[in-house]
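Most newcomers find our protein records easier to grasp once they have seen one. A learned vocabulary of local backbone shapes supplies the integers on the structure line. An example says more than a description, so a record of this kind follows:
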Amino acid sequence: GSGGTSTGTGGASGSAGSGGACPSSVPTGACPTEGQSCSYGDCCPTQADCVDGQWLVADGACAAPACPADAPINGANCTCLEGLDCTFLDCEASGMMALGGCGDDGVWDVRVGPCTPVVDDCFGRGVPCQPGEICIKQDDPTNGGEIIACVADPCWPGTLECGCAATACPSPQTCDSVTPWTDGSNPGHLRCRLP
């Protein structure tokens, strides 16, 4: 016969030019069915095509994951975007923003709340922070100095406090102190220190 779709195990699926199931894993060497095409994997599938009696295998070309244009619904599926963090701003129109992250479980964790201020001068060092970020000062273990940076506020939209802010401190540093922003103009500050 001709045409048809076949599905194997191990995430293999594809169309067979003249019948036949896809191998359960990415094939190599000789192939039995000229024109057969099989795909392996979900996010960036590897493609195996039977050409001139041999499997021609090409790894999937994947573009870097990108944030969607609009904030997703909390708990929505984000398979293939795991580890992606996104900020969605609507500060001028609504005064609201959303911070979203795609977890290892392939589900969006989205928090919505009021826009935080843009900070032009984090800890007086000229480092700019964007809405949803806090200023962090941490010990530099390589030279005994300090590192100043902006990081996503792990407590937002709640109050900045060591209990939740400690996750922004690089291990083995811990949260030493916080200064939450309260009036919409002062940035949140986090101080991390080595033990």
About this structure: Residues 8 and 22 are 5 Å apart (CA to CA). The first strand starts at residue 5 and ends at 7.
